[in-house]
Specification:
The complex is a heterodimer of chains A (262) and B (316). With 262 residues, chain A is α+β, with helices and mostly antiparallel strands. Chain A has a 9-stranded mixed barrel. Chain A is globular. Chain B has one domain. Chain B is built from 2 helices and 12 strands. Chain B has a 9-stranded mixed β-barrel. Chain B is globular. The N terminus and C terminus of chain B are likely disordered. Classes of the chains: A alpha+beta (262), B alpha+beta (316). Chains A and B meet through helix 2, strand 2 and strand 4 of A and strand 4 and strand 5 of B.
Chain lengths: 262, 316
């Protein structure tokens, strides 16, 4: 009996030291929750096409980022996806610099910054400089059910060290990637954010949409922390590029260039 | 599947709702119209602090005088307005002072050529016969520095090393960690900001301004050589601050000048009003004595709504 207890004790100590050796040391807020503050970006090719594809003129090859490889479209929805694919060089909302949506903003290949407090996480995307708030203060989705947001309404909770975010209230203006994968306003996303180590986050999103998919499906990408010296977001209000011919006050009106023929 | 037809109907409805909404706000009764600006002295901060030592100024704020109709006569409307907001009927001294606090005459010290450019913009503001006379904000461009402080209420969120402004039109990240400015050739709507706290005052050095935004509908402007030093001076109980910014641009002005824009904090004692205090009550699982306030995403360009709004206004 005694030896059985001590064996158990030794085993327990060994197991717990193994666990602490295996558990990554990650940044935490003073309340003990994981602290995702920082500037993040994927290296995956997810934004080109979530599904497996060979290289083509507008996309490098990739084995895809979806569990089970392909999105389980309903038949009519698959037809629309095919049409989107055909016109992707014109119709992708990214080309207008429209807000990319959730989850696309996360795996688009420009950095985004997370600012975190106990009550929320604020995500600022370099692309379009749009802002998403993930509330972690036990509040619920708005009672109003006809909200339609580009980024959805995000309510997070903690499962151990994993941030689980429920996202609803979408509009129909966003695509999931450059290949024309799509969703309806009925989209419901459940995200799981989990540190693999202090500078690496595993991001998982399960998408459910009864009008478009036959069952929920899950994608997963890895996000890396930007650690370059003095790295910062540089606002990219690309939708304003078309205004450059009107603003600012044209150089020929400025005195320094007056009369130089420029 | 939502058809193209129903999405067109939705878009039409949205525009109808949005324009109804727009009629209520810009220039309307909801704009707060205090007549005076109370000076706030720089000094010690004795109020609440965040764990990293910053004075806690988080929350919702808005200017107390007027919107961006007119920079130097903020409550005077846009000169030449052919509509109901025509020339002011009150004597100038009964309205709030110019946002130009130095020089004392309240006028922007433009060089003659620049004054002519500003007057030209103003002359065509109500009849923009060329694209350049359309104010960038009306195209959903960010309002930039310093106009954002006169356009709708905004939220301040603070973090170790950062202070973030979430404006109705644009987002601005103030870096407090002393990193150098971006290379000079990168010009941005919200510029590039490096700040530090001195007592009750946040001092921000603003560079890399793309100078595309006009300061007001009256057309005041600077060039992309501009440098701005901002002082956000908070009062003792954190209920107000004055934005005091010195604007230096030898390309456009005869000398540096200073602008003062007063702001006050909105709290759960205030009713959301869709302009100064543009927030919603959070949906809480249990009734609480203190309502939690949040604001929805503000995306302007995609729906081409007037002057920025949430994506779709609820008809609730």
């Amino acid at each position: 009996m005694r030896s059985w207890v001590s064996t158990l004790f030794v085993t327990a100590v060994f197991a717990s030291s193994l666990a602490s050796a295996a558990a990554p040391k990650i940044p935490r807020l003073s309340n003990g929750k994981p602290d995702f503050s920082g500037i993040w970006q994927t290296t995956s090719a997810a934004d080109y096409d979530l599904e497996p594809h060979a290289g083509r003129a507008d996309a490098p090859p990739s084995a895809g980022v979806i569990e089970g490889n392909f999105i389980p479209y309903l038949p009519a929805a698959l037809e629309r996806k095919k049409k989107n694919f055909e016109v992707r060089d014109k119709e992708d909302p990214r080309l207008k610099c429209w807000t990319l949506g959730t989850p696309r903003g996360i795996y688009y290949r420009e950095p985004f910054q997370i600012f975190q407090r106990d009550r929320d996480l604020t995500l600022v995307f370099q692309f379009g400089h749009s802002v998403r708030t993930i509330h972690t203060n036990n509040t619920l989705h708005p009672e109003v059910t006809d909200n339609e947001f580009y980024l959805g309404d995000s309510r997070g909770r903690w499962e151990g060290d994993t941030l689980v975010v429920d996202v609803t209230d979408f509009n129909e203006e966003t695509w999931l990637d450059r290949a024309g994968n799509w969703h309806s306003p009925k989209l419901h996303v459940v995200e799981r954010w989990k540190f693999l180590d202090a500078n690496t986050v595993e991001y998982q999103a399960t998408l459910e949409d009864p009008e478009v998919y036959s069952r929920p499906w899950t994608l997963s990408v890895i996000l890396y922390r930007h650690r370059e010296k003095d790295f910062q977001l540089i606002e990219n209000y690309c939708f304003t590029l078309g205004y450059d011919k009107y603003y600012p006050v044209p150089a020929e009106k400025l005195p320094s260039t007056k009369g130089t023929g420029q | 599947m939502i058809t193209m037809k129903s999405s067109l109907i939705a878009a039409a409805l949205w525009l109808a709702v949005a324009s109804a909404h727009a009629q209520q706000a810009p220039g309307g009764e909801r704009i707060q119209r205090e007549k005076t600006v109370t000076p706030i002295a720089s000094g010690k901060w004795s109020g609440k602090r965040l764990s990293d030592g910053q004075p806690d100024v988080q929350g919702h704020w808005s200017n107390t005088i007027a919107n961006h109709n007119n920079w130097t006569d903020p409550e005077g409307g846009v000169p030449g307005d052919p509509g109901r907001n025509g020339p002011p009927k009150t004597p100038r001294e009964s309205r709030a002072p110019s946002r130009v606090s130095d020089p004392v005459d309240g006028q922007v010290p433009f060089q003659p050529w620049a004054h002519a450019v500003q007057q030209d913009f103003l002359a065509f503001f109500h009849n923009p016969v060329k694209e350049e006379y359309v104010e960038p904000l009306a195209r959903c461009a960010p309002a930039g520095v310093p106009k954002s402080f006169t356009w709708h209420g905004y939220e301040i969120r603070q973090y170790p090393g950062y202070l973030v402004f979430l404006f109705n039109s644009g987002t601005r990240i103030i870096h407090l960690d002393g990193k150098p400015h971006l290379p000079d050739n990168i010009k941005l709507w919200n510029a590039d900001s490096r700040g530090r706290w001195e007592g009750n005052t946040l001092i921000v050095d603003v560079a890399n301004n793309n100078a595309k935004a006009r300061l007001a509908r009256t057309g005041e402007f600077f060039s992309d050589n501009v440098r701005i030093e901002e002082r956000f001076i908070f009062n003792a109980d954190g209920s107000r601050y004055n934005y005091v910014a010195t604007i230096t641009d030898p390309t456009v002005y005869t000398r540096p000048w200073t602008t003062t824009i007063p702001a006050r904090r909105f709290t759960d004692k205030d009713e959301p009003d869709g302009w100064h205090y543009e927030v919603a009550y959070a949906n809480q699982p249990a009734r609480s004595k203190t309502p939690l306030i949040e604001h929805y995403e503000r995306i302007c360009v995609e729906n081409n709504g007037p002057f920025g709004n949430i994506a779709v206004l609820s008809a609730k």
